[in-house]
Structure formats: C-alpha cells, structure tokens
Amino acid sequence: MKHLRWILIVAALMFCAAWQARAGGVKVIANPSVKADSISAGDLRSVFLEDADTFSGSHVEPVLARSGPAHEAFLKDYLGKNDSALQAFYRSLVFTGKASMPKMLASDADMVAYVARTKGAIGYVSSSASTDGVKTLEVK
Amino acid sequence: MRKMIGGFLAGGTLTALLLASALHAQELKLGKYNVQMHGFGTQGFVHTDGNNWLTMNTNGVGSGAFTDAGLNLGTQINDRLRIGAQVYDRKLGGLGDWHPSLDWAMVDFRVKPWLGFRGCKVKTVLGLYNDQQDLDFFNTYALLPQSVYPIDLREVMIAHEGGDIYGSIRLRKKLGSVNYTAYGGRRDDHMYGGYPYLVSHFMAGGSGGIKLTSEGGPVYGGDLRWKAPLRGLLVGASRINEMITASGTMNMGGVVVPYTEWSKHEWQNQFYGQFAANRWHAESEYRRYLRDTMTMGGTMEVINDVRGWYVAGGYRVMSRLEAGAYYSHYFDNTPSMNAPGSPAAAAQAVYEYDKVVTGKFDVNRFISIKVEGHFIDGAGNGPYPCGFYGAQNPNGFQPNTNALVVRTSYSF
C-alpha cells in the first residue's frame, strides 16, 4: 500500500513535469507596441486565423515560423491545424482576396528581430530563445 | 483578333506562373509597398464509360482538356486598407476555351474585426466552398460535389461586381464567434460557361442554336456562419437573390432572330456544416436553387427546382496522404418548359447520384496529385446544365457513368 502511494506521487510529479515541458515548449512574443501582457487562446487563434486584425485596441500582424519544433507545438496547441492545412488555409484566403500571406521566418532569431522592429507583430519562439527587444505574452 | 488576344493573355498568364515559380518571386517591392504575387494551376485528366462528361470527350481514351490557372497581385496599403486583383483562365472541354477573365479585383477596408468593406469585383461567399472552388490544393477532392458546386457552371456564382459588408463577432460566455457577409451588386456571366454552351446547341440538329452575347443582372445576398466553441465545428447558411437577363440571337432554320430571356424568380438557399478534428474532417451541404425564367422573348417559361446535397469526409492517413469519399445527390424536381397559360409539359425529373472515392497525395507544400473514382447513377438532360451535354452525347444518354479523374495542382 505504501509503495502504491509512492508510485502514484512519482507518476503525478512526472505528469506535471511533462505538462510543464509541453506548455513551456513555445513562447508567444509581441512587439512592445502591443499594449496587453497576456492573450487568451481564443484571441490568439483569431489573430492567427485572420478573424481579427486588432487586439487590445491596436492593429496586430501574425508572424509565422517556417518550420521547427516551436512551430509544430504552436500549431498543435493553439491553432489545431498541421502545417500543410495551415498553408492551404492561408493560400485559400490569398486566392479569394481576403488576406495577404503572413510573413514567415526561418529561425527564432529572425522571428525576434522581425517582431522587435515591426509595430503590432505577434509571433512565437521556442521557450529557450532570447527575447530581447520584444515582450512575452502570457497565454491564458 | 479577340481569340488572338485571349490566347496571348492565356499564354502570358501561364508564362508568368512558370516564371514566378521558377524565380520564387513571391514578394516585390514597389516604392514603399511590398507586393505579393501568388499563382496556381491545375491539370486534369478524365476517363469515363457510359457518357461523355463535362463537355469533354471522356469516353474511350479520355480527355486532358481540363486545365486552369490563376495569378494574383496584392498589397497592404496600411493597417486597414488592402488592394489586389486576380486573373483566371481555364479550358474545360468546350468551356472557358482560354478566354481569361478578371476573377476578382478589390479594395478591402477593414475598420474593425466586426466591420469591413470590400468593393469592386468580389468573390461571392455562398456555402462552404463557392469562393474557393478553384483552389484545388485546398480541397480533398479533384471535383467538388457536383450537386452543389457544378464545375461547368463555375462562372455563374463565382463573383459579383459591387460590394460586401463583412465582419467577425466574438460571442460572450465562450459561445464561439459569428462571421457575416452581406453583399449586393451585379453578376456578368462569362460567355464561355455551361449555360451559353448548352443553349448554343439547342435545336442544333440542323437548325442552329442560341448564341448569347450577354447574360447577367442584379444580385444580392448574405452568409452567416457560426464557429462553435467546440473547435473545428462550423455551421452556416447562405442566400442569394438574382434577377438575370440574357440576350443574343437565335438561328431558326437559317433565319436569325433576336433572342431574350429574363428571370421571373431566381434564388438559392444553402445550409451547411463542417467538423474537423485531428486527422478527420466531415462536411455536408444542402442547396435549393429555383430558376423560373421566361425564354424565347417571353413565349416559353422554363422552371428548374434543383435540390442538391452531399455528405463528405476525409482522413489524413499519413502526413502527405489523405483519403476521402462523398455522396452527392442532385435532383431537379420540375424541369418543365411550357408556354405561359398553357398546361405544363409533363415534368421529367432529372437526377444524378454520384458516389465518389478519392486519394490526395501532397508531393510538397506546393504540389498535389489526386486520383478519384466517380460512380454516377443518372445523367441530367434538362433545360439547365448538369454535367452531361447532348453535344457530346448525340446518340442519347446512358443511365450510368463511371469516371476516373486524375488532377494535379501547383500553387505558390
């Protein structure tokens, strides 16, 4: 019985650690012009799926990574689409005249640099990336 | 001359597509503006037994006269204002015939997420896929369900010249969001579409046919769709009202006389739902299209009451491979032609029930290949097009048609 209790505690700790690692896989970043310090998952989805082009009262621009673990985690956790589905979705907007193709960047460093210099830009990087010059948005 | 210009523009579009893809020139700098250039093209092949289909001679060896392409330019002027335009061209058997058209060209001014305006020539939002029906890379199927999105009538509903009011509203208490579009304007049909083609062969057994020179008129309508809190669930409804007038000439045994026709009533209702989760997606739509038209200068009334619906689903088997299937049901309940005031001619229902299986392989982000089988019960032969045409089936229609469709697409 005693062993079982320890096994359950260890399993719970491992689950929590795994959950933390999963949630901490990606950081959402924004240009300092974005007023808010946090964003809801629904608002984040609206911005990246072009339903909304404003957030917290100011214009925002979604920025995508081309590939990588942070990109995959962001798509899975917040948009519910895989990369091909997302690309097809954006191109369907472009070819019907409803939106432009978002900027796509090759690395975390490029993403941070672009978001830092572009008013209203919102992007994402891996949790270990340096985020000098941008603010990190907490996703609620 | 017009043919030469058309051919030149078509060639130009294709050359630009190839050039653009070769150079990967997707963003140009024009002054202070970044101009994006995107394009797509598809090539299809159709083989059938039973009947020739979609104005192609598909029986026997089959037909590859199934090509289309589009090219667009667009730029964001400022946070709220965007402009862009797209040219589209196609060859589908006897349709399109490499006569390019301005697919859309518009100014888009988005004031708030819940309020935006689009104007000039705008793609018409109608059901799940009307404005996206050319985007082969986006769809699981090589041919969308023909009961709701007939490819031979693509030009009829694809766009309108006028304006849209649109927006997206987040609902309180986590009830999801609502997207709306309301529009009004005018439609001007391409003279190389399915209806002009059909009537050009009307009474063609020696005495000629009807040559339309214009067809179009005022349209207005709207679309309302709810994105439910359950991620991936979407339901909606669309409505369009039209008042269409067509004119041209009719050859009656060598005597050419003016020809006109006009709508008494013409509208379409569409209801739809879609659910996508993980590797799965499923969708269904119902369309009712009523077309009550006075033809032959008002001496003949033609009524079509079309009920079309489909149920479709797809599953991504692997990251690059998707399998799908649908059942498409087309039923024209009252295809009647009669002189006003006289008893209606015996109504003969026109139907097509199409069972489809498909496989889509994404070679990479830009190229996909689809292989699709159609098993069609019925062959419409009414006064309005529905895929099978007398011109390619001069000896009458077979009751069943099986078809193999292979289609590859490229987009950038």
The topology string of helices and strands of chain B comes to: HEEEEEEHEEHEEEEEEEEEEE
Largest sheet of chain A: 6 strands, mixed
The named CATH superfamily of chain B: Porin
Kindly name the structural category of chain A.
alpha/beta
CATH class of chain B: Mainly Beta
Largest sheet of chain B: 19 strands, antiparallel
DSSP strand content of chain A: 15-25%
The total domain count of chain B is 1
Share of residues in helices of chain A: 40-55%
Silhouette of chain A: globular
User: What's the CATH H-level homologous superfamily of chain A?
Assistant: Periplasmic binding protein-like II
Description:
The complex is a heterodimer of chains A (140) and B (412). In chain A, a hairpin with a 2-residue loop joins strand 3 (54-55) and strand 4. In chain A, the strands form two sheets. In chain A, strands 2-8-1-7-5-6 form a six-stranded mixed sheet. Chain A has helices at 2-23, 41-48, 69-79, 83-95, 108-117; strands at residues 26-30, 38-39, 54-55, 58-59, 61-65, 103-105, 121-126, 135-139. Residues 15-23 of chain A have low confidence and may be disordered. Chain A has a single domain (26-139), classed as Periplasmic binding protein-like II (D-Maltodextrin-Binding Protein, domain 2). In chain A, 46% of the residues lie in helices and 21% in strands. Chain B is mainly beta and 412 residues long. Chain B has one domain: Porin, CATH 2.40.160.10. Chain B has a 19-stranded antiparallel sheet that branches. The A-B interface holds A 42, 46, 51-54, 59, 80, 82-84, 87-89, 91-92, 94-101, 120 and B 26, 36, 38, 40, 70, 72, 74-76, 79-80, 82, 84, 86, 104, 106, 108, 110, 112-113, 118, 122-123, 131-132, 134-135, 137-138, 168, 170, 174, 177, 179, 231-232, 277, 316, 319-320, 362, 365, 411.
